[in-house]
Structures are given as structure tokens and as C-alpha cells.
Amino acid sequence: MVGVLIRMKLAVLRRSMSGQRAASMLAGGSIGLVLAIGTLVVGFSHFGSPETAVAVLSLLLMVWTLGWLFGPMLTGGDAVLRLEYFTLLPIRPRTLAIGMVGAGFVGITPVVALVAFAVLLVYGAHLGLAAALVAIPAVLLQLWFVVVLSKVGMQALGRLVRSRFGWELSSLVVGFVLGLQNTGWMDIGLAIRTFSGGWADGGGIVLRILPSSWAVVAVDAAGKGNWGVVALSLGGLAVLGVVLFFVFSALLSRQLVRGLSDGGTTQTGGDSLATKRILPGGPFGGVLGKELRLWVRDLRRARFLSIALWAGLFSGLFPLLDGNTVLLPFAGVITALFAGALSANVYGLDAGALWLTLVAPAAERVDVRARQVAWLLLVAVPVLVLTALLTLVSGQGWAWPWVLAVLPAMLGGAAGLVPLVSLVGVAPFQDRPGGNPMDGFTDESGDQVRLKIFGMLFGQILLAVPAAVVVLIGFRTGSTLLGWAGVAAGLLTGAFYYWLFGRLAYRRLEKAGPEILDLMRKGVRTEVKASADEPAEGEEEEPAKKDDLSGPQNAAVALFVLLGVLLVIPQGFVSLGLSLFGATLPGWFLVAHVAPGLRVLVAIGSIVLGACSFSMVVLMHRVAKRKAEALAAAEETEVPEEEKENGREHAAAR
Hints:
Elements: H1 2-16, H2 19-42, H3 50-75, H4 93-103, H5 108-117, H6 119-127, H7 129-160, H8 164-183, H9 188-195, H10 200-209, H11 214-224, H12 227-258, H13 273-278, H14 282-297, H15 299-317, H16 331-342, H17 355-358, H18 364-394, H19 400-423, H20 446-463, H21 465-477, H22 480-522, H23 551-580, H24 599-637, H25 641-653
Helix pairs in contact: 1-4, 2-5, 2-23, 3-7, 3-10, 3-11, 4-12, 5-7, 6-7, 6-11, 7-11, 7-12, 8-15, 11-12, 14-15, 14-18, 15-16, 16-18, 16-19, 16-20, 18-19, 18-22, 19-20, 19-21, 19-22, 21-22, 23-24
């Protein structure tokens, strides 16, 4: 079974390594490899004492273990071998569990983890030959532990998120990770002090108890010649991995036999009389009530809004760890930003239910406008409350014109873009009753949804720029009146965005409704690469798509995207804002190393370079597409060899 599933996984990966999926996999693998190499480099550091070394390495391995445990919440689990593929096959759960765990060691993430865990080999080499030899089984057992732990976590959390508490917990974890990605870099000073190991005397004892640290403890004990601790640590790690495997097998068995009994993702409940009185009557009120209920009851929709709330809150709170309160007033802005981005596939969540709108006469405009109002009611109220509370608590009075100008523009722009972006490049979200509700973006629509999310993030930021520029001009000129005029600019631009993009959305729904419905019912069909050794029976082998980027080109695309994000956001907009306010800039900002008068120009230049990096991605795809079109045209106009021979014979006869 292990061999069968490994070959199956490799075949799927080989056939799907093209286009957006290949670029996203290479980008994620590149980032993970950079982090793994950074972990490996830590092993070459010279620590003040053995206790400090054990504490720091234990902290690193704990972070990697938590990443394996909670990472599936961000990625949606295994996109290759889904459990529903095997529900109707006569396979014993334990046999299937062995195959799933064995296949879990194949892929990019296990290789990245193996590179990171090799820090134990480096550390063991410092301690001597015996410790280096013990580090070899320690690395393998650590990898075994995290792979099985990830499988158990995915199944357990998949069952947990079917309850209200469970999906809120999963949303909190995802929001925590997003907040860490957004503003965690502002705590680099705190991280440096943490990895200096000054806390090792107290905190190191606690870390040693955790299973993620047992491999480090074994290597350290081998260096001291304490073989009893070595046997206890490695044996405990092996036994724990076996116990986790049996837990995974039990969870898998329950998942296989559960079927469709509790696979629903909605929560039912009666409508209160007050709700019926508040909602307006007519078609608009009906669609508005339906949308409000879906955003509250549907597991996936509610989870998206909850993730946005936690992401905004953690983004404002993380800088507090290093005593920085500057981002607290903007937590609501970040919440609105993520709420719009995560809602970019709202029509895709309906799948085939769109036909209810299309068969009703002139219902497209009402449907779009009601969705816009429902989204605004659910997002604007908590965002405004969060902004007011955190701005008052932080004491950052200067931030009032900024947040009050940016928020209306961003909310109005998001309310308009949400239905429009959802109807452009439709990505149907297939509901799988009985499946894991965390499998959000693991199907063929996943890459398309991710592109929509990134596009919405940058689009909302650009839409808020005019209002922010008005406030900036007032701030630079010292005009309080002009600064507060930015609030009016934000309200006007937000209302304009709401009207314009909403109009474009229902116009598109009117013109392309049947085509969109057909795509939602059938799903996104992606072409796969043909395999030379596995042609379809009775069919000729089809060549791979000519407009696919090659492996090096996909790697270059991933590099350009990563470089563009770094140049545009932290080194661009963040540096520009801090430079305009005259804030103290840490050393990891490029503008901190130039004269104060040139910082604004350097930040703008960084934004321009980031835009050029994104343009290179678009250019590479256009060049590949033009080459494919040229090859297709050449094949159509190419004269067959037989016709050429007949022509030569005819000419000779004449």
C-alpha cells in the first residue's frame, strides 16, 4: 500500500507540475528551504553554554513542529491524496493509514524539514563522534514524529471544526499565522534577544519536557556520555510516534465509516421575529436575509470573516511585544483588507445554486446589490468598533484622520470588488459532504482563488491611496483642515467604488450568467501533462501544453513574486510611511542606510522595482502564450510531407 500510494502521489505531482500550481509549489518550497537553511546555520553558532544551545535548538524544533501541526490549516491539507478517493474502496483503515503516512514522507515539505532537522547533525558534530552518530536516528525519528503528528492534527482538527468552537479555534490559529507574517518582522529585535539564550536557565527546562525537544536532549546527552537519557529520549520519541500512528488510524476509521451523516457545513436555526421585522420586504430583502444567514451559518463563509478579524487583531498586537503601539489604530484597516480578500470567491461558494438567480427575471442587479449590503453590514460594524477601541487605548490621536479616511475607501472598494472579482475567473468551491471541511483550496480551483486573494489585497490598497494622499498632503503642509478633508475623500471614493464595481458585477452576471453557471457546475478543468510511459488505452499520447512554463521559468516566476512582495510592502509602503512620519527605522530597512532626505525616494524606488518584478511575471506568461500561438499557427499552415512529394512529382511530370 505504501508503494502504491507513493507512486500515485508522484504521478499526480508529475502531471500537475505546470502553470500556477507549479509556481505556487516552487515559491512555497523556496521559502521553506530558505527557513530550513537558516535553521541549519544556527547549528554552527557558538553558544555561551550547553544549556543555551539546547534551549535555542529546542525552541527552533518546537516552531517547526507547530508548523507541521497547524500548517494544514493554511494549505488545506494534502492536495494530492484526499481521503474521499478511498472511501468506497475495500481497504482496511490501518492499511490505508500505513499508506497515507508512508506517502507523507514524499514531497517538498519532508525534504525541507529534513534540511532543518539536520541542525542536529551539525550540533552533534560539535560535541563529538558519539553525539554525531546519535544525531542520525534523532533526525529520522524527529521527521517521523512530525509527519505522523501532522496527519493526526489534520484529522482531529478536521473533525473539530465542525463545531462552532472548533472553527473559531482554527480561525484563531490561521489569523495568528497571518498576523505573524504581517507584522512579526517588527519583533526582530525581540527575536534576536530570544535566540541569544538569556532565558535558557529557566525556559530551557520547560522546553526539554516537550516531545519536540527530545531529539536535541538525546544528542546533548550523547555528548556528555549519559546513555540512559539517550535511550529514554529516542525511545520515547519512537513510542510517541507509534501511539500517534494508532490514533491516526482510529480517526481515519471513524472518518471512513461516518459517511454523510454529519458532513454538513451549515448550522440551522429558526429566524427570530425581530430579524424578520428588521429586514426589508421584496426581492432585495429576501436576498439580503439569505446572505446574512449564510455568512453566519455556513462554516466556510463564517470562518473567512473570523480569520480576517483575528488577522487584523494579531497584526496590531504583535508589535506590542517589542513595545511598539504604532499599528494598533490600523488593526481595523487590516481586518477590512483581509475580509475583502478572503471574500473574493463569494459566488464560487454558491456553486450550482446560481441557477436560482438566473431563472428569476431581472434578478442579477438585486442579487449583487444585496450581497454588497450584507457584506458591508457584517464587516463594517466590527471593523469600526475595533478601530475606535484600539485607537483610544493606544493613545495615537494622530491616526484618526488616517483611519477614518482609509476605512471608507477600503470598505466601499471591497464591497464593490467582492462580487466583481468573484465573477471574473470563476473558481467554484465544491462542497464535499462527509469530507474534511478544511479542504478549502486543495482542488483545481485553489490556485485561482489564491490569485484572487492576492489581487484583492493589492487592489484594495490601491483604491485607498487617493484618500490617504489627501491626508498626507495635509500632514506635510501642516493643514489640519486639509488632513480631515481626507475623510470626505474616503467617503466619496468609497461610495463611487461601491457603485461602479457593483454595476460592472451585475452587468457581467447578466451577460455571462449561463457560462458562469456551467463552469460552476462542472468545475475548473486543468490540462495535465501526458506521460510517455502511461498512454491512455485506445488513444494516442497527447503532448504537453506548449504554453506551460518550464521548470527554470517557474522557479524564476516564484523568485520574482517573492522579490516583488518584499520590495512593495515592507521595503516600499512601510518604509515610505515610517519615513514620512520621521520614525526611527530599524537596520533591516534599506532606507535606514541612506540620508534622511533620500529615504522617500528610495522607498518609492523600491515600490517601482517591486512593480517591475511583478511585470516580469506577466511578461514571461505573455511570451510563453505568444510562442504557443505561433507554434499552433505554424502547425496549422504546415504542408504535410505527402503533399510536398506529390507536388514535386507533378512538377517533374510537367
